[in-house]
Amino acid sequence: MKDVLEELAAAHRELGRGDLPAGEAYTVVLRRRYDAEIEDVWDAVTSAERLSRWFLPVSGDLRLGGRYQLQGNAGGEILQCEPPRLLRVSWLFGPDARDGTSEVRVRLTPGPAGDTEFELVHAAVVDEVFFGTYGPGATGVGWDLGLFSLAVHLAGGELGDPSGFESSPEAREASRRSAAAWGEAHLAAGGDPAQVAAAVEATTKFYVPDQG
Description:
The chain is of the alpha+beta class. The protein is built from eight helices and eight strands, in the order H-E-E-H-H-E-E-E-E-E-E-H-H-H-H-H. Helices cover 41% and strands 28% of the residues.
């Protein structure tokens, strides 16, 4: 099993701003390298069978212009698909979610030694009160854990039941460190230190609830 804390440290995180059809958005950016060929990484993030092994079961019309649904999670439209380098999808929750409020983009670049540079950008139009409470960690912590699962999968391993892993001591500590790391990214983007500290605490409590 790969070490979750080492994998967490392998990622670079940024907070920025961007534009979506629904308005100005916050963006969380994760960049890291995987020891796998670009075609293998592309297949892992686009194949329904493989997505179910490291992320979530997915259904729908998995081609450009088609709609997808992740089990118990987001759904949307496949907006761009340029194998094996670029995938962009809308990322929406619930039957009343408005188009254009949230998008995820994955960009892959082949590395010099048969490896792959991986970039994920999640842009979302977010209520300012919600962002002020939780900051970028509300989205970023979940992606950190997801990209760890992808690392395990690409190395030939499996995490098993995701709910069991998420409640494990390793995942709880990773969530704490991820929330802190997103706090650092928030500070680097000009966040108010007091607000950032409060957001890190709130995000940590959400992802790592007391086990009473």
